[in-house]
Design brief:
By secondary structure, the protein is mainly beta. The chain is built from 11 helices and 37 strands. A 9-stranded antiparallel sheet has the order 17-18-20-21-22-30-29-28-27.
Length: about 625
């Protein structure tokens, strides 16, 4: 006691209040929505039971808190505002395929990634993606609202957040758009992670199909520049400016900066997750017929240069979502500035590849020896996935690797049959990688390859079970070589991948939530993933048309049990997961609800109670918020 009295007062108080280290955490389940009110609101009814190393337990009730909604004025600006390169609100959308346009201003209803950064004292900056807008009124009075996906540039917000140290409650007090003019604007920003050095690493999803937009104007981003109707060669938006990892930094005064990392490849970026070596990054490539990518930076903490690899799935069995050894195909090495120089030099798709129509190969099979068949997601555009015949032009290896990463990976023999590869996160202690495959279908199924020239993945089982998705686990280690036999300079290389947690179709005897197509008591179509080292828990957010209400689950890697802890309103997707394990003695699970009540997301349900009556009760503005009530967790 005498020694404690000699301590500074602040340290004595801290010593008296500090909890012992945590041994384990357990979440209690949130029941399924049982009323129309619950189906139309975001909520949790869960608690977390914390067992400390000295043996005592505490139970902490959880609650969901809304920080702000789309369009809310926070300080001098409005959340989710869609602007042009001058920072001015866009007043009218690009025309859709039918020639229709929507009336602005636009405040995106689709908040996605969160990174709570620069937590100094009671203040922090929350970086949040706004992926796209859902629907907006037509410029023609009396016409129905228009679907806005892909019709507008996107935005990233940075909000100043204040913490009440006693209660742990957070409040957004100021907000601004991250200025993206220096990186040619932002295309469909999806999920993100926080780097070990404290920056926000996001991704631009569903990159524009450069083959198509070589001859057609990229009208969505022409809106950003004020260059309607122009192709890149005419001074309009360039498709090769989009589809990259984006790193957002926040200074202590709250100022933000953004760069795009062209050396990490161009793809349908869900996110990039940096391994503990601060060099190795795994990247989800969303869409159907996509590729798993790995980037190894030249220097720790610096993503501006490195080597890009693509995975080859060497299947060992097709049960339980499958198991495979992974080998890595080296695509190439680059520095950001090298790829930027190619883009600014005006490189086009036709400069990289020669092409021939599949019908021409069918008519003249000898062409098959000269051109190579690939079947991959081609990017946003009118054209659907289809068989392409390509031939790389001389000297275009680097351009292909970093501007057409998926097509080039397929040419080199990497696996290009993955479907809806979404969230990626890792478990440092156990050296595990977790990857969400939201929907397992088409090319991943056995005997469903159709026109695909390769057939690496052939999963067994009921296709209706597999359509509910799975979370895969990857084993990480060193001493791995690429397919050319060259050592990969990383100790965090995934060398095996297997199904860890799967969804399943709704059993006939399950009467709760009768409109669910997948088992209501199991995950369905996992999307966002974030892992907590301190809680040894994988948090899983759903993006499902197979659960009427999408859920967030807490999966203990020790007990291997998944517990539902949050329910989103109908039509809403769970996004923006980030675990804040300890900020001034409080823990948080950041989590947003994207496009709640969206008509497009409810279109799979029969007309009537859900699509009309329930949807009308949902506040359709996107929600940026968090699950609070967690104590600070440390081991």
């Amino acid at each position: 006691m005498k020694k404690l009295m000699w301590l500074p007062l602040w340290l004595a108080a801290l010593t008296a209040q500090a909890e012992p280290q945590v041994k384990s955490v357990e979440f209690t389940p949130t029941p399924l929505p049982a009323s129309d009110a619950e189906r139309t609101m975001p909520y949790t009814r869960s608690s977390v039971i914390v067992t400390y190393r000295d043996g005592h337990k505490k139970t902490f009730p959880l609650s969901y808190h809304v920080l702000y909604r789309s369009g809310d004025r926070i300080g001098a600006w409005q959340a989710g505002a869609i602007v042009d390169k001058h920072g001015q609100l866009i007043a009218r959308s690009a025309q859709d395929a039918a020639g229709n346009a929507a009336q602005g201003p636009f405040f995106s209803y689709s908040p996605d990634a969160n990174s709570l950064l620069q937590r100094n004292g009671d203040y922090a900056t929350l970086v949040t993606h706004f992926e796209y807008h859902t629907e907006a009124p037509s410029v023609v009075p009396g016409m129905p609202p228009l679907q806005m996906y892909g019709q507008l540039p996107a935005a990233i917000n940075a909000a100043s957040v204040v913490q009440d140290r006693k209660s742990g409650l957070l409040k957004a007090v100021d907000l601004h758009n991250v200025d993206a003019a220096g990186v040619y604007g932002i295309w469909t920003p999806c999920a993100a992670s926080q780097t070990p050095w404290g920056t926000h690493l996001g991704g631009e999803e569903y990159e524009p199909n450069a083959r198509e937009f070589e001859i057609a104007p990229l009208q969505t981003m022409n809106l950003y520049f004020g260059t309607p109707g122009k192709t890149a060669q005419q001074g309009g938006a360039n498709p090769y400016d989009y589809g990259y990892k984006m790193e957002v930094s926040v200074q202590p005064d709250g100022k933000t900066g953004i760069v795009k990392h062209h050396a990490m490849g161009r793809m349908a970026n869900e996110l990039g997750d940096v391994m503990p070596d601060r060099r190795t990054v795994y990247m989800g490539d969303d869409g159907r017929d996509t590729v798993m990518f790995m980037f190894v930076a030249d220097q720790a903490g610096n993503l501006t240069s490195g080597t890009l690899y693509a995975a080859m799935w060497l299947q060992q069995n097709g049960d339980n979502a499958g198991k495979a050894a992974l080998k890595w195909v080296r695509l190439g090495h680059a520095r950001d500035e090298e790829i930027v120089r190619l883009i600014r030099g005006g490189i086009r798709f036709s400069d990289i590849f020669e092409t021939v129509a599949a019908s021409a190969v069918k008519a003249n099979p000898a062409l098959d020896k000269e051109y190579q068949a690939v079947y991959v997601y081609a990017g946003t555009g009118v054209a659907a996935n289809q068989l392409e015949y390509l031939k790389l032009k001389p000297g275009m290896e680097q351009a292909a690797a970093f501007l057409e990463s998926r097509r080039y990976a397929a040419l080199l023999g990497a696996t290009s049959e993955f479907t809806k590869m979404e969230g990626v996160t890792h478990n440092r202690q156990d050296k595990r990688l977790y990857i969400a495959m939201s929907y397992i279908e088409k090319g991943m199924l056995d005997k469903a390859n159709e026109d695909r020239p390769a057939d690496h993945i052939a999963l067994d089982g009921d296709s209706k079970d597999l359509a509910c998705g799975a979370v895969y686990e990857g084993l990480l280690g060193g001493a791995q070589s690429d397919t050319d036999g060259n050592r990969i300079d990383s100790d965090w290389v995934a060398y095996e991948m297997h199904g860890m947690l799967t969804g399943a179709r709704k059993p006939f005897w399950q009467t709760a939530s009768p409109l669910d197509k997948c088992d209501s008591e199991r995950i369905a179509n996992p999307d966002n993933l974030k892992y907590s080292e301190a809680m040894r828990t994988l948090f899983i957010g759903e993006d499902s048309g197979n659960h009427l209400n999408n859920f967030v689950w807490a999966y203990s890697v020790d007990t291997q049990r998944a517990t539902r802890i949050f329910s989103a309103p109908i039509g809403g997707e769970n996004t923006g997961l980030q675990v804040v394990e300890d900020w001034n003695g409080h823990g948080y699970l950041m989590g947003n609800v994207q496009h709640p009540g969206a008509r497009d997301d409810l279109s799979g349900y029969a007309a009537g109670h859900v699509r009309e009556e329930l949807a009308a009760k949902v506040d359709q503005r996107g929600v940026v918020g968090y699950i609070g009530g967690l104590p600070g967790i440390r081991r």
